[in-house]
């Protein structure tokens, strides 16, 4: 049972407690659901999958406690009698308090075969100028033209297939075939076409303004297509977990099979 703000055992400064409680619940509930339905990866026992809740969330909560404690000291600690400080420093709010940088990089159920990070990042502060990597919060992208189907949901994983150019359509089809092997209702597939792409497949959205490609892929040329020197040329499959974090980034059907969908239990390494 997650009581969030009703069970604070830390400083409420920064307003991080309620959001942290909701993140805890979202991180755990999809894992409980997979175990309850018997859908976790067959190579992973249910206890091992459940342990990843602790592995992913404890480091985030530790960082949150450090941030809120330091903020409390800046606010009250400098003045006699515990009166709040009126100086500007006590009210400085950094990027980390927005919680957009919270990530699970290094988690045993996260797979990034395209551009894995060289080292595990501070769990609370992803650099804004970095490309999205496995374990990061899936960024919002505006300007998506919905062609058919439904949008994201917290009751299933979502596979984003970045189709790239028209020449890669057959490869995109193979990726979709690989993704449809998973149990009904567990995976939703969203094909994202580049701004100048041709929506000839069963495409879900078109990235009319290029924000999705700019967020999820490293480089774009002026037309909005992946640049020739990009490390992330399409097609690329990004699987967004039910809790809104990137669980898998792969670039071929074999990669989809290898991950066994780590977001499903989600690893053949465990």
From TrEMBL:
Keywords, sorted A to Z: FAD, Flavoprotein, Oxidoreductase
Pfam families reported for this sequence: FAD_binding_3 (PF01494)
InterPro entries: FAD-bd, FAD/NAD-bd_sf, RIFMO-like
Record-level Gene Ontology MF annotations: FAD binding; oxidoreductase activity, acting on paired donors, with incorporation or reduction of molecular oxygen, NAD(P)H as one donor, and incorporation of one atom of oxygen
Record carries keyword Nucleus: no
Keyword Ubl conjugation: no
Cofactor(s) recorded in Swiss-Prot or TrEMBL: FAD
Coiled coil: none
Domain FAD-binding residue range list: 2-66
Name by which UniProt lists this protein: FAD binding domain-containing protein
Organism (species): Lentinula detonsa
